[in-house]
Each structure stands twice: as structure tokens, then as C-alpha cells.
Request: fold
Amino acid sequence: MSGKNNFYTRKKEIDGVTYTAQFNGISECLKMFDECKDSNGNINNLELGEYVCENVIVDPKVKIDDFEDITTYNKVVKWGLNVAQGKFRDKAEIPVKETGK
Reply:
């Protein structure tokens, strides 16, 4: 491991609002899923949504009830979850691995 700082921010416009989300590293992603499970080990959607709003979406600062409808909320949280898991890179940003040929 290189020990380099792997934190990134990404912006995306969703339903007329530009959101900034932050990738906080793999350990923070694992922590997010561990903290958002119920006693049976199932993901608690409310807690996961709150976690994404509080820790991944950094601008504008939002809470679940700030959204006017569930559709926009779902778009923002889904995108935030992708960023939190490191699934935010455009194809142009992903380095091509050398095959040795």
C-alpha cells in the first residue's frame, strides 16, 4: 500500500441542484455499512440515508427531510453511496492496466 491520501470530491447536478460528495476512503465506507445495520444484520435504510447526508454529501449540507420528494432523495443518496464506495470515476479517469504485451 502506498499510504497516499485517497480522498476525493465529486460534483453532480441532480434535479437542478449541484451536490458535492466526498470519498472518505475504504475504511470509512466499511464503517458506514457496519454502523447502518439493524440487530439482524440488515441495512437500515433510514440510518444509511442519514449517514450519507451527514458524511458523504458535503455541499450543500442536507438532511433527509430537506428533500421535497423521495425520487430526488433516492437519486442523491444512490449517487452518494457510489462515491462513498469509490465508484465515482469516469471511464476516462480509470487508469488502464498494462498487459505486458
